């Protein structure tokens, strides 16, 4: 299966950027996912290629015009049904659970990146766009948020990672943060690798890792720990 991704942006030259490197870049070459960009500015009609205007009601900043964004969306959506995601700090906050859901999407994904004060609300409503946020902070545009989400999504597509068992143990998979990792040398600047990891005793190693994962989750993420220890369903998978 290929995950088909389109990004509507005023800065198409930002893509694939980081997504063209390493494992995700290889996956792109292998067509495990495809990436198209659509430059919103090409749908502007005046000679200055204007895409924005001042806010009704006053206030600083500019807003992306609904008529221009609508034309860009029409061009993309006429290719067929797709899941339309609008990047905004006002959206549902992205997490590992959503990454999994989107990685398995049977529909193509369309990411709509805002700039300035954002996109006129009417065109978002008209297209029934799904608001999604990277987190509780404000970026200057949706492009880096889109890239970050795609980093999390694409690695979950079957065949992208060499060893998919690594997905089962990493942070959030079981509702916990991951245990600490170590490699060679065994001793570094007087710091030893925990003895248990050298024992070759798989059951004890698994028990140690579980204990470490629980301890760090309890300490750093009381919200996750509460759900995990009360055996509530993991919302992140
Ligand atoms: N006026 C908006 C507000 O206060 O909610 C912020 C606009 S922001 C300067 C410009 C664009 O960056 C947004 O339209 C959105 O596409 C993107 N953006 C900013 N913060 C984001 C976040 N946390 N998650 C996703 N996209 C974000």
Describe this structure in words.
This protein has 237 residues and is of the alpha/beta class. The protein has 2 domains: 152 residues, SPOUT methyltransferase, trefoil knot domain (Alpha/beta knot, 3-Layer(aba) Sandwich); 66 residues, Trp Operon Repressor, Chain A, CATH 1.10.1270. The protein contains 8 helices and 9 strands. Strands 2-1-6-5-7 form a 5-stranded parallel β-sheet, sandwiched between helices. It has a two-stranded antiparallel sheet with strand order 3-4. Helix 3 crosses helix 5. The mean pLDDT is 96. The structure holds S-adenosylmethionine. S-adenosylmethionine binds next to strand 5.
What labels would you give this structure?
about 240 residues, alpha/beta, 8 helices, 9 strands, about 35% helix, about 20% strand, binds S-adenosylmethionine
Report a brief summary of the structure.
The protein has 237 residues and is an alpha/beta fold. The chain contains 8 helices and 9 strands.
């Amino acid at each position: 299966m290929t995950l088909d991704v389109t990004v509507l942006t005023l800065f198409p030259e930002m893509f694939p950027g980081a997504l063209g490197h390493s494992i995700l870049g290889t996956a792109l070459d292998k067509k495990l996912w495809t990436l198209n960009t659509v430059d919103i500015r090409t749908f502007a009609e005046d000679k200055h290629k204007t895409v924005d205007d001042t806010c009704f009601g006053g206030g600083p900043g500019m807003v992306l015009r609904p008529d221009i964004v609508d034309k860009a969306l029409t061009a993309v959506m006429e290719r067929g049904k797709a899941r339309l995601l609008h990047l905004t700090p006002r959206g549902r906050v992205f997490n590992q659970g959503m990454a999994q859901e989107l990685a398995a999407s049977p529909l193509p994904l369309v990411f709509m990146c805002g700039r300035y004060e954002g996109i006129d609300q009417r065109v978002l409503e008209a297209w029934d766009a799904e608001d999604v946020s990277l987190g509780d902070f404000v970026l200057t545009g949706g492009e880096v948020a889109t890239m970050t989400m795609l980093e999390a999504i694409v690695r979950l597509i079957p065949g992208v990672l060499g060893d998919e068992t690594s997905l089962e143990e990493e942070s959030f998979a079981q509702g916990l943060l991951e245990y600490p990792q170590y490699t060679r040398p065994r001793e570094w600047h007087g710091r030893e690798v925990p003895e248990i990891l050298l024992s070759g005793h798989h059951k004890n190693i698994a028990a140690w890792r579980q204990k470490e994962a629980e301890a760090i989750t309890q300490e750093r993420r009381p919200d996750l720990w509460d759900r995990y220890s009360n055996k509530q369903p993991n919302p992140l998978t």
